[in-house]
Design a protein that fits this description.
With about 325 residues, the chain is an alpha+beta fold. It has 12 helices and 8 strands. Strands 4-3-2-1-5-8-7-6 form an 8-stranded mixed β-sheet, with helices on both faces. About 30% of the residues are buried.
Amino acid sequence: MLQRAKSLPSGQGAFSLQRDVSTSLRKDFHVLDRARRVSAVLRSRVFRGELETLIQSQATEGPVKQREAFRKIGDVAADSANQKTSPMNSRVTSISRTSIPRASSVIPVADLRGAAVTKYSKAERIARNKLASLYRLIDLCGWSDGIYGHSSVRVPHTSNEFLINPFGLLCHEITASSLVKVNIAGDIIDPGSTSLGINKAGYTLHSPIYSSRPDINCVLHVHTTAGAAVSCMKCGLLPITQDALSLGEVTYHPYSGIVVTDEEKLELSRDLGSKSKVMILNNHGLVAIGGTVDEAFYFLNNTVKACEFQVGCWFANIHMSTFS
């Protein structure tokens, strides 16, 4: 052992070799541990029993029952894997599930099957999958707010129809089939796979934007902590970071309660303007829009970061200088 140690290169080379070997070993152990956990789950009698029950119920139960079954199987699989892991891995898994408790969920996003595939055009199926995926992304980013907050996408090749979430599902429960199709007048054209209906405040916020801005195909609305904090500041969002500057013109709407009236719709259209991609609802939250889902998410992400930077500077009592 001593001779082998003496034969190793000294100095920086020895440290580099040791670091590379350690990294490689850690990767190998991680792969082996993951394979062991998967094998343990697949050998679990409880998991196999739940899976057989789900398969047998697909022909008789509705989509809501299937989602509940998928969620239950995800919990069973996660619990089975956790029981087989080492103490260190158990602590890591526990921390992860505490920070993002939806991680064990296996509710499918693209759940359009059978008759639903022919019910919608290919373009609408893609739009449904994108919007449902966007809700999962919002949830993973920590921007969700229970059953509140709402995002929508215009139905492709239409001018007066859009898809929005059913009122009552959490972000990680929303799927392509559960999205509700409504028109600008507020009529539900397709309720999706649930009977929950929509949040009227969501419809009232989104419909005037689609009516007044034909260039917009996606509308996102969230209530993040930093975003709500900036919406309460008289100064508004300051141009103190690159993220803030990337937003272009930011408009504001004086929030006066839950948005449900026709008068509010007209004021929203007027305050948004013809060019802005970001609107802050005073004392409430953020709205980001775009010609595509991707563009809308880009503006929302930059807005959230800009608000977090501004609140961080304010909290640290730092004198904020703006770009000239």
